[in-house]
Write a structure and sequence with these properties.
globular, about 25% helix, 5-stranded antiparallel beta sheet
């Protein structure tokens, strides 16, 4: 049975969570554990109508608004002090049209939700490199990911959005509907509304791709970066890479004596056939003397979530 809050939001059907609610501390926590803010009310929405009701409630009472999607933002902007958090975390549905090659994604979905549904059809859009990143924050901020060299940033794959304006109105933004607003949403950097539904274009990817990291000793960093600069000049657009300076993670497939050793890594994901991918990364894998080579045919969904445990909440 859901606890009933002392604060009532007219026209709201989701959960209203206030400081006396037993779920309050969990509901206000975000990915960055140093963020410790105490909103007056958390409105956990069930759909766009709830989002609109929460915005109107905040306007009527002059409350500061924070919007929570995945809660991954390092600065903790998904939660505020003494205001209202419009919480989309219960809105995670993803619907795929494999013929049109599009996906409708609710504003609280995580990239793992999107990958799970789209890969059932061998499709994908450029998403984050951590599966528990929120779709909303990543998309509206630009969105880098493994597929960006071939298919652009996440925001380049956004074809329409349903959002609630500051007036509490539900509108659609696309190239044909409110085109100026649609332009602003795609990386404009401001807060132009609460996006409750995204529509993304999808592309054939996977389900198996050539992907994974190669690690070299940290002292080889300069040589690796110089090689990589030249290597990338002729690399096909299908090859996405991420460079990381850090330590080798304590994975079961890595010898224990290499766990946490300082290293430079170049991780790859090829958005094409495994055979073409093997040829594309061959020179990279053969450069110098790698400590660990984990490049192999792998499921795209597994590669997408491969480092989730290294960036826990």
């Amino acid at each position: 049975m859901t606890e009933r809050s002392a604060i009532q939001i007219p026209g709201f059907r989701g959960d209203v969570i206030t400081p006396e609610h037993p779920e309050y501390d969990g509901a206000r926590a975000v990915w960055n554990g140093t963020v410790d803010r105490r909103p007056r009310v958390i409105a956990r929405c069930s759909g766009s109508a709830d989002v609109a009701a929460a915005v109107r409630f905040a306007r009527d009472r002059d409350l500061e608004i924070a919007v929570r999607g995945g809660g991954h933002n390092v600065a903790g902007t998904a939660v505020c002090d003494d205001g209202i958090v419009i919480d989309l975390s219960a809105m995670r549905a993803v619907s795929v049209d494999p013929v049109e090659r599009t996906a409708l994604v609710q504003g609280g979905a995580l990239w793992g939700d999107v990958d799970h549904e789209t890969q059932a059809h061998g499709l994908a859009a450029t998403g984050g490199i951590v599966g528990h990143t929120g779709v909303g924050g990543l998309s509206l901020g630009g969105g880098i990911g493994w597929l960006m060299r071939k298919y652009g940033l996440t925001v380049d794959n956004l074809v329409a959005a349903e959002l609630v304006t500051a007036e509490g109105e539900i509108v659609r933004a696309s190239t044909n509907d409110h085109p100026d607003l649609f332009w602003a949403l795609r990386g404009g950097g401001g807060n132009f509304g609460v996006v409750s539904l995204f529509k993304f274009a999808l592309h054939p990817v996977g389900p198996t791709v050539m992907a994974g990291p190669v690690f070299w000793p940290a002292e080889d960093t300069t040589d690796v970066l110089r090689f990589y600069r030249e290597f990338l000049t002729d690399a096909p657009d299908e090859l996405g890479n991420v460079i990381r300076l850090g330590t080798i993670p304590p994975l079961p497939v890595v010898d224990e004596d290499l766990h946490f050793r300082p290293a430079i890594a170049v991780a790859s994901c090829y958005a094409g056939s495994v055979e073409d991918g093997e040829r594309a990364v061959r020179a990279l894998r053969q450069f110098g003397t790698p400590l660990v080579d984990l490049v192999r045919p792998t499921r795209y969904v597994d590669h997408q979530s491969g480092i989730d445990d290294t960036v826990p909440h």
